[in-house]
Amino acid sequence: MINIYEVLETNDMIEKENLDVRTITLGISLLNCIDSSLAGLNEKIYNRIVSVAKELVPTGKAIEKEFGIPVVNKRISVTPAALIGASACKTTEDFVTVAQTLDKAAKATGVNFIGGYSALVSKGMTESDELLVRSIPKALASTDFVCSSVNLGSTKTGLNMDAVKLMGQIVHDTAKETADRDSIGCAKLVVFCNAPDDNPFMAGAFHGVTEADEIINVGVSGPGVMRKALESVRGADFGTLCEKVKKTAFKITRVGQLVAREASKRMNVPFGIIDLSLAPTPAVGDSIADIFEEMGLQRAGAPGTTAALALLNDQVKKGGIMASSYVGGLSGAFIPVSEDQGMINAVEDGALTLEKLEAMTCVCSVGLDMIAIPGDTKPSSISGIIADEMAIGMINQKTTAARLIPVIGKGVGETVEFGGLLGHAPIMPVNQFDCSSFINRGGRIPAPVHSFKN
Amino acid sequence: MKKTVVTVVGKDSVGIIAKVCTYLANNSVNILDISQTIVDGFFNMMMIVDVAGCSKDFGTLSHELEQIGGEMNCIIKAQREDIFDSMHRL
Questions:
Q1: What is the mean pLDDT of chain A?
Q2: Contact A301/A231 with Cβ under 8 angstroms?
Q3: Option in B32, B82, B84 nearest A7 (CB)
Q4: B55 CB near a chain A CB, below 8 Å?
Q5: Furthest-apart CA pair in chain A: how many Å?
Q6: Hey, which of A39, A111, A149, A411 would disulfide with A118, CB 3.0 to 4.6 Å?
Q7: Which ranges of A32-124 does DSSP label H, i.e. alpha helix?
Q8: pLDDT by residue (tens digit) across A257-278?
Q9: Are A334 and A288 in contact, with CB atoms under 8 Å apart?
Q10: Does B31 touch chain A (CB under 8 A)?
């Protein structure tokens, strides 16, 4: 039988160290909503989402109450809208109405984000893909809860550099469309290389076409728990450190697994995967950067940070994989800047630069995440940063992403406040040398060779 | 059997256990195990109870326990045992 010390340990994790289940994300296929009439399409999308997801928020709340563990977000991901709207949407404005329908459905079901306003263009863009991509600035400016993502490349196909070029412009335009709100539209827009079909985390969640009609995916969290656990092995060797990370990740993931199974049973929707990510929040102590400091680095970004992140990411996976029957999504450690107080401090102290973050993304689960850059950054430079990040993912056979926020009207030295889970961010300097002739070449970067790995 | 863990955390005072046990008895909740300890000067009690015979739903039970806790300046939580089992048992 469970003893009092185990109960106290669990409850301390929840109450003092911010242990929570970060998100229950209900994936919904919209393939059966495809219609050649725009009105018909929007009606079907709305009805399908609202009927499938009506129990999501009440179920999440009931689980929260019964197990005493916060389930912070309840979210929905849908089939990439570029596929669903291909038959009905003839203009960018048509696509914007689909975004507005998704937003309306999200509000009706009480979720806080809906992902899947997406296009998968790793090799080429269809007319519909391009219309959707070009509609993103207006779509994100005229909705509150819709998240958008675009997959620009993969290890198998190479990089679609035409789309990379276009996305530099789209990120810039999205920032301009939401300039009155500190360019917050860009916080809901992410580009990927090797995007997973089952990611429960926003802004990149979409319900891939390889998935069933409906599925429950759960994202766990717990940087605060990890940092606290590592206090007990201060000064110990790397073997001991890694064991501690692994065991702690196991415990965190088991809670996620329980919540996922329970939600799946109650909603009668199959369980998909657990995403084993350490996802920080702006709450003090709930930070990846604090874990680095506990490991012995003065600040995130100090020499040794990439090694620290590599071991953290790998041990989290090793512990988590044993704790869950199905693991997927992004799984690893997120290193967003604005959502992590320790990372914000590191940037403000001059310890962490964009270039060091890029190096760190070679070994972590995602990429350049929630990074505020000067509003006057050229679209071609944004494309250049995206291309670098996509190349890391393509060559290393991993998912990488970029969520960059050019804050219109602000420059280096200023900060931007998004509020809530998105936090605040200091504007980081971008290399001022030009890359437009490189980006303007257009075409594709071919898929990499899978041998001779050096 | 539906096992639930009830925890009471707060400053030690006369009658805490009595009050919680009376409430549980009145609601046909059977106590299977009970233990307590002092951590950082705070009274910590844990009960493992069976709520299968209780006519109230889980939400009501846990809310009423919370209220009793409020009256005695301590925090009372009811959680399904599964969360602890998942985390601490293979």
A1: 95
A2: no
A3: B84
A4: no
A5: 67
A6: A149
A7: 38-53, 56-67, 81-84, 92-109
A8: 999 999 999 999 999 999 988 8
A9: yes
A10: no
CB A362 within 8 A of CB A193: no
| In the block, residue with structure tokens 């970004």 | A301
Instruction: Say what the pLDDT of residue A153 is.
Output: 97
Q: How many CA atoms lie within 13 A of A175 on its CB side?
A: 26
Contact criterion met (CB < 8 Å) for A10 and B77 = no
User: What pLDDT is recorded for position B16?
Assistant: 85
- Asked if A1 and B48 come within 8 Å (Cβ–Cβ), the reply is yes
For residue A2, give the nearest of B36, B48, B59 by CB distance: B48
Nearest to B83 among A5, A62, A68 (CB): A68
List Cα–Cα distances, A441 to A92, A161, A437, in angstroms.
Answer: 26, 8, 7
The answer to whether B36 faces chain A, any CB pair under 8 Å, is yes
CA distances from residue B8 to A73, A167, A394, B23, B29 in whole angstroms, order as listed: 28, 54, 53, 14, 16
A203 touches A73 (CB < 8 A): no
Given a contact cutoff of 8 angstroms between Cβ atoms, the answer to whether A118 and A81 are in contact is yes
Q: Count the Cβ atoms, other than its own, within 10 Å of residue A223.
A: 29
What integer pLDDT is reported at residue A172 of this predicted model? 98
Computed over its alpha carbons, how large is the radius of gyration of chain A? 21
Peptide bond into A203 cis (omega under 30): yes
Radius of gyration of chain B (CA): 13
Task: Decide: A293 and A299 in contact? Cβ < 8 Å.
Answer: yes
Across A23-27, A158-162, A422-426, A437-441, least confident range: A422-426
Partners of A2 on chain B (C-beta within 8 Å) are: 5, 48, 81, 84-85, 88-89
Buried b (16+ CB within 10 A) or exposed e, A407-434: bbebeeeebbebeebbbbbbbbebeeee
pLDDT band at B39 (very low <50, low <70, confident <90, very high): confident
